[in-house]
Specification:
Keywords: NAD, Oxidoreductase. By secondary structure, this protein is an alpha/beta fold. The chain is built from 13 helices and 13 strands. It folds into two domains: 2-119 and 287-306, 3-Layer(aba) Sandwich (Rossmann fold); 122-281 and 312-335, Dihydrodipicolinate Reductase, domain 2 (2-Layer Sandwich). The strands form two sheets. A seven-stranded mixed beta sheet has the order 12-11-7-10-9-8-13. Strands 3-2-1-4-5-6 form a six-stranded parallel beta sheet, sandwiched between helices. 47% of the residues are buried.
Length: 341
């Protein structure tokens, strides 16, 4: 099959390598506004061919398309792909604004081709095992879930300017993981954000963004979610999930690459070296995610993360953003009512 790839930034470049390594992919048709980014991909990947625009990519007759462009253009690219009836993988979030996301949800419901939204932790073996432990009942009733995403360094300023803020572009992975693993929906949130006073104002304060954030989630079956995020975890990339039930508890992400330094005398774990970024911590998940997408393109399986499903995470992010601004708990129903009037 021939897969189109729109956007060749940090994650797009990783996706290009991943797609090219899949046996079912014969050609990867790529495009990026920065021609040098496309040339870098075609220079190292024999299966890759560059075109000048998303329109040219869709005109090339691809079987499926992967959208890895900036958040603020997700909606227009997804709409264009759906109009062509092309099966589409779109990196989170669905769109740059909740209004656009709602419109994409309506379009996807009417489209002839399926959509898969990118949440790679659903494909990480440890997260899958945690979900299985919840589903098989071995944990008993789940009462607490802790999810962590600590980035070692912020993304580029240009990305932050259009990302929608830390709750929409970073914490969403945790919100989705908590929903997916527990099988519960977010009912209400209470979120706080903090900004390093030494951080450039143009990167954060000018956009109402934060360098660190924490969110408490109240889930539909009574569990409590605790989400921690930062863009400045210099020791490394820390992605973890703990699920605590009344009879047992499990954790994902407790491997030798965990970027923590123990202070207990005589304890040498984790052995290290620490994970440095998402490309190494989640490499296996990215491969499984795009291999699954190719099966969706082939019509072998349904999308494992539809736009409808991803909207549950989007609403949680909207509630967290509003909560941090107004300093109060916010229900998902409230943000839905505001958006859908």
């Amino acid at each position: 099959m021939r897969i189109g790839l729109i956007g060749l930034g940090r994650i797009g470049a990783v996706h290009a390598d991943t797609l090219a390594a899949l046996d079912v992919v014969e050609e990867v048709v790529v495009t990026d506004p920065v021609r040098a980014a496309a040339d870098a991909v075609t220079g190292r990947i024999s299966k890759a061919r560059a075109v000048d625009s998303p329109q040219a990519l869709l005109d090339a007759g691809v079987d499926g398309v992967v959208i890895a462009a900036a958040t603020n253009v997700h909606a227009e690219l997804l709409e264009a792909a759906l109009a062509r009836g092309v099966t589409t993988f779109c990196e989170k979030p669905v769109a740059g604004t909740v209004a656009e996301a709602v419109r994409m949800q309506e379009l996807a419901a009417q489209a002839s081709a399926p959509v898969q939204i990118g949440y790679p932790r659903r494909f990480d073996p440890a997260f899958v095992a945690a979900r299985d432990a919840v589903r098989d009942g071995s944990l008993g009733r789940v009462h607490t879930v802790r999810s962590t995403t600590l980035d070692p360094a912020p993304p580029p300023a240009a990305y932050l300017a259009v990302s929608g803020g830390i709750f929409r572009d970073c914490a969403v992975h945790d919100f989705d993981a908590v929903r997916w693993v527990t099988g519960q929906e977010v009912v209400s949130v209470y979120a706080v954000g903090a900004t390093d006073p030494d951080a450039p104002a143009a990167m954060y304060r000018d956009h109402g963004d934060h360098t660190s954030a924490s969110t408490l989630l109240t889930m539909s079956d009574g569990a409590i979610g605790v989400v921690s995020n930062t863009r400045t975890n210099a020791r490394g990339y820390d992605v973890r999930l703990e699920v605590h039930g009344v009879t047992d508890a499990v954790a994902a992400g407790l491997d030798d690459g965990l970027p923590l330094r123990p202070t207990q005398p005589g304890v040498s774990w984790p052995a290290g070296p620490p994970h440095t970024f998402f490309m190494d911590r989640l490499a296996q998940a990215f491969r499984a995610e795009l291999a699954t997408f190719c099966r969706v393109v082939a019509g072998e399986i349904d999308s494992p993360c539809t736009v409808d499903d991803a909207m549950g995470t989007a609403w949680a992010a909207e509630a967290a953003t509003l909560s941090a601004i107004e300093g109060r708990p916010v229900t998902v129903a409230e943000v839905q009512d505001r958006a859908l009037v």
